[in-house]
Design goal:
- The structure is a single chain.
- By secondary structure, the protein is mainly alpha-helical.
- It has a domain at about 80-105.
- It has three helices and two strands; from the N terminus they run ββααα.
- It has helices spanning about 35-45, 45-50, 80-95, and strands spanning about 5, 15.
- Strands 1-2 form a two-stranded antiparallel sheet.
- This is Reverse transcriptase domain-containing protein.
- InterPro entries: DNA/RNA_pol_sf.
Length: about 120
Amino acid sequence: MRRHKLIDKVTCMEIKGKPSTQTSLCLTLLTPTDHNDFQSLLKGFLAVLQPNLHHHIKHQVTNHISTTGPPVYSTPRRLSPDKLKTAINEFQHMLQLGIIRPSSSSWASPLHMVPIKS
């Protein structure tokens, strides 16, 4: 409980709470198999809750950002072979999902990779 709120760090959902001096007897955990009003409401909107990255765009709006002058220069840095392989695989995966697309722009951002602690 933080600032009188109970926060779920996975879903970022929060609910206001009221501190009590009484001891809690038990906590209840709702599992996906439990039937409640919230679960039945969510079942009506599965298309919204499940990401679909291959959807067709229903409009003709495109964005174009005109830039002038040369790009900001940053010294290229080599990646270690294992980081390079991971980066290539991740970019290929995002390309297949349609999250990114090839670009001919001379603008780029440095890639910072940090290993995840186990």
